[in-house]
Design a protein that fits this description.
Elements: H1 18-81, H2 83-90, H3 97-115, H4 117-124, H5 133-152, H6 155-176, E1 185-186, E2 189-193, H7 195-204, H8 206-213, H9 228-239, E3 249-254, H10 258-289, H11 293-324, H12 331-365, H13 370-393, H14 405-412, H15 414-431, H16 436-462
Antiparallel strand pairs: 1-2, 2-3
Helix pairs in contact: 1-2, 1-10, 1-11, 1-12, 2-6, 3-5, 3-12, 4-5, 11-12, 13-16, 14-16, 15-16
Amino acid sequence: MTSGRIDSGPDTAEAPPADVTAELEQARRERDAAVSKLDQRNHRRQQRHRFRRWFVGFLVALTAILIPVTVTTAWTHRTVLNTDQYVKTVGPLANDPAVTSALARIATDQVFSALDPQVKIKQALPPQAGFLAVPITNGVKGFVQDQVNKALNTEQFANLWTTANRVAHQTLVKVLNGDSKAVTTSNGQVVLSVVPLINQVLITVQQQASELLGKNITLPQLSGTELPAAACEKIGAALNRPIPSDCGQIPLFPKDKLDQAQRAVRAFNRLTVLLLVLTPLLLIATLVFSPTRRRTLLQLAIGTTLVMVIFRRAVMWLQKDLINTGKPENKEARQAIVHQLLHGYFTVTAWVVGVGLGLVVVALLAGPYRWAVRLRAWVVDGARALVRLTQVAAGRARAGAQSDATTRWVRDHLDLLRIGGAVLALLLVLVLSVSWIWLLVILALLGGYEFWLYRVDQVTRTG
């Protein structure tokens, strides 16, 4: 007879106690919470890393642009608003034939405008020969221009040129920096007066002017502190001819625009200071925040070099436009002036480009690239070999010198090394424009190199 109890059999597992189930569930929750917290931390770390990478990239781009801007701004400020640097820049123009020829032509036009000798010459000729007044006047004008040109190619004119530029520049800077007492105005224009320079030219041709006017004239000595109109009046009184009150004046800008010009100069001064402070700070911050400073330095060097090259090219285009704009007869003078003014800028920017390229080379050679690692190993091996050979040449490492692979190679290729040193020295002398001092230095280095090879050969043979 079958019992009413049902046997579940041996495969039926007993249910775990309630406390064990609760502990397992708690462990699962803690595990899931830990995993979630770790995922959140990794996500935040990735976000910070991504933000840092984009932020450093922004700093690299900004710094690569600001460095050329700062260099250009600082050079412009120093050249344009610093009187000593400005005079140093334009001073050599007084000895440039193209500039002095143009100045002689302009000064002669001013002188003949003041003298007006054609009327005097026509009055001196018979009525039938009146038509000769124009060619005679032109001939006299050519003679006077030659005399003026000779006067402009003297040390006296060079000194006058420097003084005139210094006084004019100091006056202009005072005006632009807000010193209203230094303002010289004429017909509603802020002007620079070169009347003393014109007067000096008149003094140079005073004898010819006296002959043209038919009487002895004595031109006044101008100090340069007179008002331009008053100085022109003195010259007119000496010539006994009316002289325009705006003679020898270079208009700069309308007087009613003076406030705008002064505000622009103040803003330019502040911008220059700001850039000189901000750009180095940005450069330091970029390298500090960068997780890979070598790569960031490489990016900065490449970016700065490219932007600087673009700036140089833009200035070259501007230079070409300035030279080609104006009267054709003054093109050579404009070319000399523009080249002299911008020579300093091209020199400074060439140094920036050179430093940038140098940093690119250093950053690449210091990188983990296979070719860089191999090259560094070659340099180290070469330096060790050079030290070894120097010790051999000095007699400090005779032992093993004959069996050393490096010294054997040098001994086997001794003639080739000697010829190579001589050829390199000859190329340096032929390619480079060396002075006598540098020629002696090259010869001394060649002699030391040849003696070094001789000592290596002697020691390896007798060691």
